[in-house]
Amino acid sequence: MTATTAVQDWLSLKARIDTLVTDPVLQRFEPNAVVTPPAGLAPFLLISDVRNDNDRNGWVSSDLNERSGTLILAVQWPLAAPVSHVQLMQIGGTIADHFPADLRMGRLRVTRNADVLQPYVEGAYRVVVVRVLWSSV
Q1: What CA–CA distance (Å, rounded) separates 16 from 126?
Q2: Residues 6+ apart with CB under 8 A from 100
Q3: If you count DSSP H runs as helices and E runs as strands, how many of each does the chain have, helices first?
Q4: 91 Cβ contact partners less than 8 Å away, ≥ 6 residues apart
Q5: Run of H or E including 89
Q6: Would you write out the chain's pLDDT as a tens digit for each of its 137 residues?
Q7: Is 0.85 topped by the overall pTM?
């Protein structure tokens, strides 16, 4: 995979992320961004994109290489800010619903409905992770 392909893939994912609407509004931190949590007790969203090794589906053309990965969207909610388990799961569900199975994003598609993982506590935050599996079209 060339850097150009990786950038195009990221821009496809980012374009979809940019249309995500949450309540409350979550400040977003993209991969490799310096994370400075918002002032006060505001929750925020950490974004990661983990790439898998390419799969080659043919002998002749490099165009047949299938790219895939996992987009990880982690809601970070300060422990000192009140929120229920149900509210965290609802926010996760709203994010997951934004990435339904077979959604096309440029040359990528979501391979199955996004997963909302069980919320947990890490450091000073409650965390709920949404996992979006994607592959090239």
Answers
A1: 25
A2: 110, 113, 114
A3: 2, 10
A4: 22, 23, 75, 128
A5: helix 85-97
A6: 566 888 999 999 999 999 999 999 999 999 999 999 998 899 999 999 998 876 666 555 555 678 899 999 999 999 999 999 999 999 999 999 999 999 999 999 999 999 999 999 999 999 999 999 999 97
A7: yes
